[in-house]
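In response to reviewer comment 3 from the previous cycle, which asked for concrete evidence that the modeling workflow produces usable outputs, we include below a single protein chain processed end to end. The sequence was submitted unchanged, and the resulting structure tokens are shown without manual editing.
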Amino acid sequence: MQKDIVLNQKRQKEQLLAVEYVPRTQDQFGKKWLDSSLIKVVLGPRRAGKSVYSLMLLKDRPFMYFNFDEEAMATMNATDTHELMKELHAAYGDVKTILFDEIQNLPNWELFANRLHREGYNLVLTGSNANLLSKELATHLTGRHMPIEILPFDFDEFLRAKKFALDPQYASLPEQRGILLNLMEQYLYNGGFPEVVVSNLDPKDYLQVLFDALLFKDVVKRHKVKFSTKVSVLGSHLINNFASLYTTRKLLDILDLKSATTTEKYINYLEEAYLIFSISRYSHQSSYRIKSPRKVYAVDNGFVTAKAIQHSPDRGKLMENLVFMELVKRGFEPERELFYYKTRNNREIDFVVKKEIEVLGLYQVCYESVNQAVEDREAKALIEASGELKTDNLTVLTWDEEREIKRNGKTIQFKPLWKWLLESKSDINT
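The workflow returned the following structure tokens.
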């Protein structure tokens, strides 16, 4: 049986290597570490492009490939893995580089990976569970792995997939600006899952099915959740209330869940599966952060649109979700480097970005900023927070407006969202 699976997957590998590839922002980072002795671990949600990214990373060298997302692999043991290695070498010959797809489906995968690593294999692993990154890898592969996170397309990748090349003079060319804003609109509502971007399929239908599949495979099935309807309702509720505050107590009341412990456990499962992210309120006191309401975001705007109940999602909140995910893609870790904030006068700041003990910048997201009342509201919040958090890097991200204002000795940059999204990843501090 294993022989047939290995040979079939070898054919699938060749087919995938032949597809047109959209270059990813993480390409250079992956290549940098490819020949190191570390185990390369590519993490992210299903269908975000992990497999294709990993295949393309290895395409210029001989490598073996096996995908553990097979029902028959769910009961594999140590003896079976020895048999698997025999069949892989029978199919590929004397090759020491291996790509293992969806490794989390293999029981005791970390023992298998460690054994092969000790034997001198160059390993690239992919997984659809964030817990691999935060806990399991830290426990089992300490100091021996390099994590690489692949999420749905950022806006730059989206434009590449759409074959839209920005002219250096685009800002002064109305037709290019118009096309760019049209593509920005598509990205805002449909998100960046590769198959949505490059195919002519219906985004809503595809993403509804994908969301439910991820929920079943990576939450219900993986964690053997008994009350699958409850976790499904919770997932839909959080997606429909994206960019909003929540508390465990309120979720208990609304959704009639069993207990606070169960609710928190389900939320953790949804985060592990890369369906949602959440951040806490910024404070120097950890106890205050823990007690404050949390704010939830979706991994992709397309899920929000697909799962929206009866109404079209709020454009300002969709922009805010894009900004959050872009900050994550730029390497800022929720809960450690990325927060929301409320001033002493209860004015809310969408995002506080920090590195170690330094606050790098404050971001507000606003669809309409030309209204004087809106400008005053955003400026007051930023100036107040600037004084409290000791930072002068203040930005309001707008739909398509760019200007600079000065208030109380502070400079506030109003910047189009599309422009900020296209800034180099090395410019994350600006």
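Residues 202-313 form a domain with the Arc Repressor Mutant, subunit A fold (CATH 1.10.10.10). We consider this sufficient to address the reviewer's concern, and the full set will be provided in the supplementary archive.
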